[in-house]
Amino acid sequence: MTQPTDRTRLRRTHERGSYDKADIHAILDATSQCAVGYVIDGKPYVTPTLHWREGNHVYWHGSSASRAIRASKGVEVCLTVQILDGYVLARSGFHHSANYRAVMIFGTAEEVTDPAEKEARLNRFIDGLWPGRSAGLRPAQAQELKATTLLRLEITEASAKVRRGGPVDDEADYALPIWAGVVPVRQVIDAPEADPRNQEGVALPARGIGFEQER
Amino acid sequence: MTQPTDRTRLRRTHERGSYDKADIHAILDATSQCAVGYVIDGKPYVTPTLHWREGNHVYWHGSSASRAIRASKGVEVCLTVQILDGYVLARSGFHHSANYRAVMIFGTAEEVTDPAEKEARLNRFIDGLWPGRSAGLRPAQAQELKATTLLRLEITEASAKVRRGGPVDDEADYALPIWAGVVPVRQVIDAPEADPRNQEGVALPARGIGFEQER
User: Fold this and answer.
1) Which residues of chain B lie closer than 8 angstroms to A84, CB-CB?
2) Which residue in B134, B175, B188 is closest to A188 by CB distance?
3) Which top-rank group of organisms is this from (chains A, B) (predicted)?
């Protein structure tokens, strides 16, 4: 369980919120898409990227030359995940809503600098999505690891927020002849597109986590 | 065409970038999911929400009591959209990548306060997703409009960034017996779940924009 702070305490619709690490971890594992917020000269920036989780840390990486990466290392960031699960259609505009799973994490983005540690964590990112894949790849070169910055954030100041279920309308509105309900959305995988330069007989990797939405 | 600024100029992989309004609009229209970044006491916050576009403005809304909404109105925000189109698997970890379409918009979030204007814009949000739906709904009440804050951002300081296509490997690595290619992902819609309290014979609304990924 994380401790709610002034930043993570859910003030509105708090029945949708959770500070439970299992809930937070499950949402982080269900998608690789996140948005990282940081501040440059007092102004907000949000960079979309991919993340993965190991234990109680969330990791992301980027080019060491990237402004987003340089501006977010060693400083306060806010990492947010949003999974849209459906549109909630009600009998009034006001009660339209969305079903979703979201996580917000606050903290200082810490750079992982040890090359062996970096390589292990980056391999774990690939293996999370494609189990066992990293062992078969051409090994990382020292300059590739140098050109890559790996950042992580401990999941201590964090909260989850989830909305599930159908519309909740004003009682009188249930008599209206309006279609109400949920239109679910989810992410799916299409047929893989093999590189035309693949060697003969190579096999498509199996899928790992991060594809949870394909239910 | 928007003018690149210090914040929107793409420094790396700039061949993936565009300042063309048509490109930016098309990505904003292809999803309703976005993340809004703002600053409180010098620290970054990112709130996931839904947006829509009308002309050269992007709109979003929330409860007037929401901290995220109160903290972002009238101040500098960064609104980001990220659509993940696929995982790009290469023959080295370093050249793994993702196909995506992204937009970043910077500016001051302007509150729309006129009730009639608010109602028209909020109806447009619903009608964008479900054409014609708003006209059949129970009309908005004054206190509902008051409880809703509508924000907008002009699309002037903005950029798009898109990656498409297969992996680009080091020339020597093409000889390796490793599966490489693209694993496409997209968002789809599942069978709608009607509210059990629906009146008999009500019809499911037709779908509008924002579902472009269902190709």
Assistant:
1) 32-33, 50, 187
2) B188
3) Bacteria
Q: Which CATH number fits domain B14-166: 1.10.287.1490, 1.10.10.10, 1.10.260.40, 2.30.110.10?
A: 2.30.110.10
SS3 content of chain A, % helix, strand, coil (to 5): 20, 40, 40
- Chain A CB within 8 Å of residue B5 CB: no
A contact residues 27-56, partner B, Cβ 8 Å cutoff: 32-33, 35-39, 42-48, 50
Judged by a CB distance cut-off of 8 A, whether residue A164 touches chain B is no
From the list A43, A104, A138, the residue facing B173 with the nearest CB is A138
Among A101-105, B52-56, B95-99, B202-206, name the one with the lowest average pLDDT.
B202-206
What size, in residues, is chain B?
215
| Residue extents of the structural domains in chain A | 14-166+176-184
Choice among A14-23, B23-32, B36-45 with the minimum mean pLDDT? A14-23
Q: What is the pLDDT along chain A (215 residues), one digit of tens a residue?
A: 788 888 888 766 777 888 999 999 999 999 999 999 999 999 999 999 999 999 999 999 999 999 999 999 999 999 999 999 999 999 999 999 999 999 999 999 999 999 999 999 999 999 999 999 999 999 999 999 999 999 999 999 999 999 999 999 999 999 999 999 999 999 999 999 999 999 999 998 888 766 654 44
Chains A, B: CB contacts within 8 A come to: 259
- The complex's ipTM works out to 0.93
**CATH 2.30.110.10, applies to A14-166+176-184:** yes
Tell if the CB–CB gap between A179 and B188 is shorter than 8 Å: no
* Contact state of A126 with B45 under an 8 Å Cβ cutoff: no
Q: A-chain residues within 8 Å CB-CB of B63?
A: 12
